[in-house]
Design goal:
Layout lengths: L2 H26 L12 E14 L3 H12 L11 E2 L3 E5 L14 E13 L2 H14 L7 E11 L17
Helix pairs in contact: 2-3
Amino acid sequence: MEARSLAILLFGFTLVLAGCATQTQALRSGDSPGNITGKAYRLEPAYLVTVHVPNANVDKVLAAVVAAVGLDYGKYDQVAYLDAPGLEQFRPLAGSKAGEQPAAGREPTTNVSFSVPQDSGILKKALDAIYATHSYEEPVIYVRGVWRTRSTNPDNANPNRWWNPTKQ
């Protein structure tokens, strides 16, 4: 490895270690996102799940997840986000159900995202529902630990709320 590449690698590693030290210090001092509250919200830990779904199967996969875990978010359910349709690229390798392919193919897909409480049982039910209804041999699913906001006060006087249109 050339000296410049090694220096860049070591610098990056130092930044990662510094970030870990900062996060560790913040957690020791009790400074975590869970301690942040506002006039109308609080934060809670959650899992954010994003899955690439062939466009033709979006409704089926989403319905299965809703049936399994409800996708509740406060006083709402079936809360999910669908990105604009795009293309997923992949090339099957030897041993896949499709068999080894010489070139990558593309499939029209939609990213379906939703959050669930940070509870491994709920997360497992959601993932089981995806795997039971997804058409891929290897569904592309990302799970991240995140903090999500939750309303604690409807803030009824706020003129920006949909039920309080401002008079102009």
